[in-house]
Amino acid sequence: MKTGARILIDNLKEQGVDIIFGYPGGSVLPIYDELYDADIRHILVRHEQAAVHAADGYARASGRVGVCLSTSGPGACNLVSGIATANMDSVPIVALTGQVPTGMLGNDAFQESDITGITMPVTKHNFLVNDTIRIPQVIAEAFYIAGTGRYGPVLVDLPKDVLMRSVSPEEILPGIPDLKGYKPTYHGHPRQIKKALDLLRESKKPVIYAGGGIVASGASEALCRFAEEMEIPVTTTMMGLGAIPSDHPLNLGMLGMHGTKFANYAVTGCDLLFTIGARFDDRVTGKIDEFAPGAKIIHIDIDPAEIGKNKAVDVPIVGDAKVVLDDILERLNPEDRVIRTAWLEEIGKWKKDHPLTCGNGGGLHPQQIIREISTLLDGGGIIVSEVGQNQMWAAQHYGFKKPRQWISSGGLGTMGYGFPAAIGAWFARPEETIVLIAGDGSFQMNIQELGTVAQYKVPVKMMILNNMYLGMVRQWQELFYEKRYSYTELPFVDFVGIAKAYGVPGRVVESEKDIVPALKESFETDGPFLIDFRIEREENVFPMVPAGAAIKDMIGEHVEQEDD
Amino acid sequence: MKQHIISVLVENRSGVLTRVSGLFSRRGFNIESLAVGTCEAPGMSRITIVACGDDAHIEQVKKQLNKLIEVIKVIDITERSHVERELVLIKVNAEPGKTRSEVMQIADIFRAKIIDVGQETVVLEITGDTEKIRALEELLVPYGILELVRTGKVALQRGAATISPGK
Prior knowledge:
The structure holds two protein chains of two kinds.
Chain A: E1 2-3, H1 4-14, E2 19-22, H2 29-35, E3 41-44, H3 48-62, E4 66-70, H4 74-77, H5 80-88, E5 93-99, H6 115-119, E6 125-128, H7 135-146, E7 153-159, H8 160-164, E8 166-167, H9 190-202, E9 206-210, H10 212-217, H11 220-230, E10 234-236, E11 251-254, H12 261-269, E12 272-276, H13 282-285, E13 296-301, E14 315-318, H14 321-331, H15 341-353, H16 366-376, E15 382-385, H17 389-397, E16 406-407, H18 418-428, E17 434-439, H19 440-443, H20 450-456, E18 460-466, H21 471-480, H22 495-502, E19 506-509, H23 515-524, E20 529-534
Parallel strand pairs in A: 2-3, 2-4, 4-5, 5-7, 6-7, 9-10, 9-12, 10-11, 12-13, 13-14, 15-16, 15-17, 17-18, 18-20, 19-20
Antiparallel strand pairs in A: 1-8
Helix pairs in contact in A: 1-2, 1-7, 3-5, 3-18, 11-14, 12-15, 16-17, 16-23
Chain B: E1 2-11, H1 16-26, E2 31-38, E3 44-53, H2 55-67, E4 71-76, E5 82-93, H3 98-109, E6 113-117, E7 121-128, H4 130-140, E8 145-150, E9 154-157
Antiparallel strand pairs in B: 1-3, 1-4, 2-3, 5-7, 5-8, 5-9, 6-7
């Protein structure tokens, strides 16, 4: 006879789970009792939201399914923002939640919440396990759903009596998914692929618009080969950063609201937009009618619902980015390669005329800090960002070389995501240098995780770009609300003092000359390290497309100066 | 904006209807009617949804429905040859005497059944397409409709075409 909790642990191990991020509570005590001597590592975070973000960071860094665990009611509810974050960015996680015993369901029992009801709109799927014998099947289905097709979060709600009941092995349903309505499509339709190649052959000004789907499907090499063989410039979304090396001659950098001018000009001027694993998000497209207005559009996506959702598409291809790109590469003929010198020269001129620049003046400029980190790490490491100006500066100025090197909340824009995600990323890839780029606002949203990094000696290098503002909101207030800084100013915080209280070392940097020595000190220190960079307070993220404008209409460029 | 009839085959599990209707509400799609019940395939249910929208709108509805794990098949049968019916119960004022015999005559013409007779009311049951039901409703308005309840439309394709599992 085995208890439900025991069956659960056995099944998690069968799924290859070796680490869980969690926080205990009454209804999950049976699971915690089993974890006490199971060979699954459990990381105790300081807030359930950190557990789910850490599982998400683990998944993004490793490409595996991340797992988090919380108790019922308040614990489960604290997972919601993190689950929604994973859902928007298609990250495979399995969230396990405790639930009150089945007999008390719906009675407003102590620490009861209808978490399957609450998370229905923000999960790929969720389960309420009503019988112990179903646990293996549900766990198998949860991992299968999370980690196939378009990845996403799956929640499994486990009532306490289901966890405590003992059943004999012969009663238990086998751990095999039984999902009649779930059949992801991986291979693109050959006729559509042929149509795409025909368009490619005719095109004089093509651009590849690559998204997070490239990273998720491991299509980065195929993308680069395709771009190189066909000599097509590539712009990536924020989620697609690292899909092509930053210094690759065909890379245009990021497009959209805070993209490069040359990427936005290229997309606006192209005659063919070859979209792969991207979803025409409004932060990318700006005014949708003026996004790639003269272009035919090819769209490769594993999720059929994304194709044609925001923009009409000429050639829809449903399939996995890597499978489809490999297929296309196999079919390429020498005559498909068209010389497009004029187009590449036009783009080269835009690149030269509109480089990304640092801020002016004597203060401490965040762009420069990011560039110094990039130089010191030689474009390596894993860069995890919070949300806001810090995120955009990191996205613009770090020299990414590989996929899964950039971890950031894209679709939901969840402040407080970065710090716990960085913790999760380190547990996935402990050999990497993990750098957190944070704002003072975002960092304070999960600042309690200093306790977690201290306890487990997680060597996250915390770079706080401190402007004592909610910087991105302040930027909008400056530009669109006549500098009425309504509730965006934050008081002074002694971050180094707080870190010290948790046993984490750190230092303050106030001038340019101290940037590199401080960074070196942090990288040379074993374990976590915090740097409080007191940056120019009203530094803005430029270039910028105002919300609702066309992406070619970018505003507020710095006076151009030397790029380095 | 056109009315579409979408037939959805789903696994018969708790919460499926919430997932389907929740999908409509959070994406701002309006449901005109929704009828659901078990069907010929064991462990499955068939949902008939009537929704208004342009083609792109309805295409998105279908794709989003297809994304739900428990949804097995989705088909828009509006443009296909199909039969559709709705069942309506109408409680109408019908005092004994001339009024009641008039109401009964109308019921007779529309092949509606009288399924309950009270002191001053009768309850009519009518099955049919939207127009027939609307016509009856209009005729009964002068007598005073006290209550009306409808099942929502159900529809099936004509002939051998089905959306049974595996076909």
